[in-house]
Specification:
By secondary structure, the chain is an alpha+beta fold. The chain is built from one helix and three strands.
Length: 63
């Protein structure tokens, strides 16, 4: 099983978050567990190719 990092926070009664690798694609849940499930769903959608023009974050080494 692989892991992916995500950023999350609670705003009022809603948990919000996004995958670090895909910061443009936010999701939410009424609990943190629901947020994590929604993040898993969006990960599968983003990596399946069903969403066109997905923007990602990468690291670049410079001198």
């Amino acid at each position: 099983m692989s892991k992916i990092r995500y950023v999350y926070w609670q705003e009022d009664d809603v948990w919000l978050g996004y995958l670090e690798e895909f910061p443009d694609y936010w999701t939410q849940g009424s609990t943190r567990e629901e947020l994590e499930e929604n993040l898993r769903d969006i990960f599968h959608e983003l990596t399946s190719g069903s969403i066109p023009c997905v923007r990602k974050v990468a690291e670049l080494e410079v001198a």
